[in-house]
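Hey, I'm writing a tutorial for new members on how sequence and structure tokens pair up, and I'd like a real worked example in the thread rather than a made-up one. If someone can provide the structure for the chain below, I'll link this post from the tutorial.
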Amino acid sequence: MGKNLDKHMELKDMYKAEIMPCPVCNSWCSEEHISKRFEDYESTWLKCNNKRCGAYFMFPVPAQQELNEYYRQNYRNKKSPGTVSHAFRYNEENKNIIFNEYNLSLSDTGISIEMLYNKKILDYGCANGFFFDFLTLHGCLKEDLYGFDIAEDLLEEFVRKGYNILSDTQMDHFDYIFLWDVLEHISYPQMFLQDIKSYLKKGGKFIVQTPRVGILAEMLGSEWEHFLPLEHVILYTRESLVKLFNDAGFVLSEAKSFGANASSSLIPQPYKRAFDYLAKYTDNGSTQIVCFIYEK
């Protein structure tokens, strides 16, 4: 699978910017764009001109070698602008906070822990295994849990915990595939889904959490925290995400969003809590959690 991920992230520079097609729906891009710089990295995202899509995608796509080096070398300590913190998400001291987020996200997709018992589960982008730590704490068995990641230091920690590594022999093997904040890092999602869906059983569920382009992104522009230079190659509207999965043979099961892009360092309580509540209640959050069923 390592070679497959390299293939998905490979730069294809056969198009000039003015005729660059959207990697989600293949429509032409508009002139609308967002540019942002952080430390040594600067990225520009073009917006798809198709009103039924509207995804933002990075142009040019970072070179394969640059991406590989970035993710494989000490990813947990990479700095990002705004409130995004890799070090926070992979720190054992913050497990309770992360576990609560997993609990809320599963609830949003209508999935209970009991539904995951004795099911084969793939966490693609497993990092150091926090999601599986959460599942085993609630009764899931390690023998049912498989992961894959390109960040070598995090994957070594994942293996030391006793979890299993995905192999190419496990076609039609899994009942559930989870992508926690991974899809936005994939340069060629159509190709990616064609590959990864072969690991899912017919009727299996594919749960993806990814930033959501919507009211907040359009209003905040480059201040929206998910415009991350180098990292977030494609940012999806709800419509573009559903289309991508529909075209790959999936049907929508559940979809929710959360988060008002309101950092506690900027917005005091109780206002932050109110903003986050309204974002989720109206389904206008900055992050979306969506469950698809694979019909084949």
